[in-house]
Amino acid sequence: MRFLVGTVGDVQSVFAVEGDQATNLTFAVPEIGRDLSALTASPELLDRAKGALGKGETVALSDIVPALPIGVPGKFICLGLNYVEHIKEGGYDIPDYPALFMRGHNSLMAAGAPMVRPACSEKLDYEAELCLIIGKGGRHIPEDGALDHVFGYTVFNDGSVRDYQRKTHQWTPGKNFDDTGAVGPIVVTPDEVPEGASGLKIESRVGDEILQSSNTSNMIWGVARTIAIISEYTTLHPGDHIALGTPPGVGHAKKPDPRWLRPGETIEIEIEGIGICASPVIDEDTAATRTVA
Fold first, then answer.
1. Per the domain annotation, does 32 fall within a domain?
2. How far apart are CA 230 and CA 242, in angstroms?
3. What sign for the dihedral angle of Cα 147, 149, 154, 159?
4. What Pfam families does this protein's entry cite (predicted)?
5. pLDDT tens, 83-131?
6. DSSP H or E run through 164
7. What whole-number distance in Å separates Cα of residue 115 and Cα of residue 281?
């Protein structure tokens, strides 16, 4: 299945996407709720969602404004340095254990929402990434059974403020500016893509300018191995996100000059078989202020 969480009017729902049409699953099966949280945690509810295809209210895909697939993921874990050529362009040694870091909720935004270049830096970079969403949780998950724990795959743009990333050996500041990590809009179940989402073209671009172009088969740590490694140290829960690193071609490594994102541009991340995550870039002084409850 292909899922999209989004709003029509002022009402957020979960939709099943088929071509240019979408079935409102929340309307058909109210227990599904307003995002994918319930579906990730319940195989029975997923079966009911499949049964609702073609039976519920349908809308044009173009009428849906995307929202985050899960409003507040329990964990959003990211891999750095997962493609050899990206490691080389950054001047790092090839590691024998993945570089792992976390993203907070304020750093995330839905596909289609503006990516905000902060007032304190012009060095806003892009990173095309495959992202998985956990279904069945667990600890000490063996690699040979890890794919059974994947609910689905989506697209992620790990927008990075490079000078702040390099202020410390820990990458937290540069990876957690508000509204720099775009997620979605489409989440596909594992049966929609090759095993482990391997062999998929992954690309970033601004207009006709191709910035990154690679394949998910080039990842050092694939989906199953990554889940096994992460679950050694933490219990994974339904709805947790894991972003799997970016291929070469990032802006800070462009020669002769870095290629930073500029206000007025739209950065698109596309993964074959999943979809396109597009984000217009704006300056912080033109961004809407987040409300704090």
1. yes
2. 9
3. negative
4. FAA_hydrolase
5. 988 788 777 788 899 999 999 999 999 999 999 999 999 999 999 999 9
6. helix 162-165
7. 5
